[in-house]
TrEMBL record:
Protein known as: Clusterin-associated protein 1
GO cellular component: cilium; intraciliary transport particle B; microtubule organizing center
Any single biological process term in GO: cilium assembly
Disordered: region residues: 317-404
Coiled-coil region: 185-304
Keywords, alphabetical: Cell projection, Cilium, Cilium biogenesis/degradation, Coiled coil
Subcellular localization: Cell projection, Cilium
Segments of skewed composition (Basic and acidic residues): 317-331
Record Pfam families: Cluap1 (PF10234)
């Protein structure tokens, strides 16, 4: 099923290319014959007929019978197509179907392609274009007219030479045949009788012209009277106003008002809807901007608190280190400046080991206290770092200008 449209398109393309080679002036598309296109077919048919030398009979039919070719009736159009196709068949010696041409579709392309191929074969345009593809000349119109004249003359010579073979045999038979006078007389008498009969018929028709004119005048008057009567009846019918026309006009007016109200409300609804969407979008953008600004401020405040906490931790650690150094210096100085004693400085019942135990306990407690404070501060700092920046909201609604 898909092969046939492809072949139809190829045949249409080949036909249009042949028309361009023959010098057809109109620009045609490849889809010109996809549908019914009878005006274009009529124009191409008459143009192809004009490429051949036409006799007086064909010119008389085309020019006098069809004075307004573009506005002819259907019967006249059928007769024009048939006459032109018969003329082209006589010139090309090929059978051209008038019905296929009248269809004005791909079948018309197939029939008219026979004429274009015949003209191209006689003119030998394809070979000439291949040999002189880059040759340009000024007298293209004159050369085209000369080519058409040569083609017409060659067609005439071809037809005469083709008919000479049959006529030569008939001439030889007529010359060799003995002349029969009686037969010639009978033929002449029959021709005279036929001529007389034709003259009598023409004379009778000429005499009956007046009667036919009267009959036609009577029929014309009858038709005109019928036309006037029908026109009067039409005018009377138009003047009559139906009973429901008032209600119909009122309902039409109400319907028109309802339509206007509906259109105005619909437009207003669309406008307000667009305004709401735009406002929501703007509010969302403003909210996002405020959140970004608050996030930046929180990050900044968080960083400041972290730095302050780190400075505080460093200061406390330094102070604790200084205190430890002071205490060590004090203890070392006391031990070095103690006087030399003889015997025991303790009271009765107290050993030196007991006094040493007390001193060692005090020193251990001091060391434990300093290590506990240091570990507590370190754990607090680690908790602050792990906790991350808290969400700090500015107290006032106004934001610093440098954040924008």
């Amino acid at each position: 099923m898909s092969v046939e449209p492809k072949s139809n398109l190829q045949s249409s393309q080949g036909f249009l290319q042949d028309l361009k080679k023959l010098g057809y002036q109109r620009n045609l598309s490849e889809e010109s014959y996809c549908n019914f296109n009878q005006p274009l077919t009529q124009d191409i048919l008459l143009w192809l007929a004009s490429q051949f030398p036409r006799d007086d009979k064909f010119d008389f039919i085309v020019k006098n019978t069809y004075k307004d070719i573009e506005n002819i009736q259907e019967t006249e159009k059928i007769e024009l197509f048939g006459t032109t196709c018969r003329f082209l068949s006589e010139q090309t010696k090929e059978k051209i179907d008038p019905v296929g041409v009248f269809k004005a579709d791909i079948s018309a392309v197939r029939e008219l392609s026979k004429v274009t191929r015949y003209l191209l074969k006689s003119m030998d345009i394809s070979t000439l274009q291949e040999e002189h593809a880059d040759f340009h000349f000024d007298g293209a119109a004159e050369m085209r007219s000369l080519i058409t004249d040569i083609t017409g003359k060659s067609v005439e010579i071809f037809t005469l030479l083709d008919s000479e073979r049959d006529l030569q045999e008939e001439c030889l038979k007529a010359l060799n045949r003995p002349l029969n006078v009686q037969l010639v007389e009978n033929l002449i008498k029959t021709e005279i009788e036929t001529a007389k009969e034709e003259m009598e018929t023409v004379e009778n028709e000429r005499n009956n012209v007046s009667e036919t004119e009267k009959i036609l005048d009577a029929s014309i008057e009858r038709k005109t009277s019928e036309l006037q009567r029908i026109q009067q009846r039409l005018a009377a019918v138009r003047k009559i106003r139906p009973a429901y026309m008032d209600d119909l006009e009122r309902i039409e007016a109400e319907l028109r008002e309802c339509q206007e109200q509906y259109v105005s409300k619909f437009r207003s609804l669309l406008f307000f809807k667009n305004q709401m969407e735009e406002r929501e979008r703007n509010e969302k953008e403003i909210m996002n901007e405020r959140l970004n600004i608050a996030r930046r401020l929180a990050d900044r405040f968080n960083e400041q608190e972290y730095l302050e906490l780190a400075d505080k931790f460093d200061n406390e650690e330094k102070a604790e280190r200084d205190e430890n150094l002071e205490s060590e210096k004090f203890s070392n100085g006391r031990n070095s400046k103690a006087p030399y004693t003889i015997g025991s400085m303790t009271g009765e019942g107290i050993n030196d080991s007991d006094s040493l135990d007390v001193d060692s306990d005090l020193s251990i407690d001091e060391n434990d206290l300093s290590s506990d404070d240091t570990s507590d501060m370190a754990s607090e700092l680690e908790r602050q770092i792990k906790k991350g920046p808290p969400s700090i909201r500015p107290k006032s609604g106004k934001l610093p200008e440098d954040d924008f």
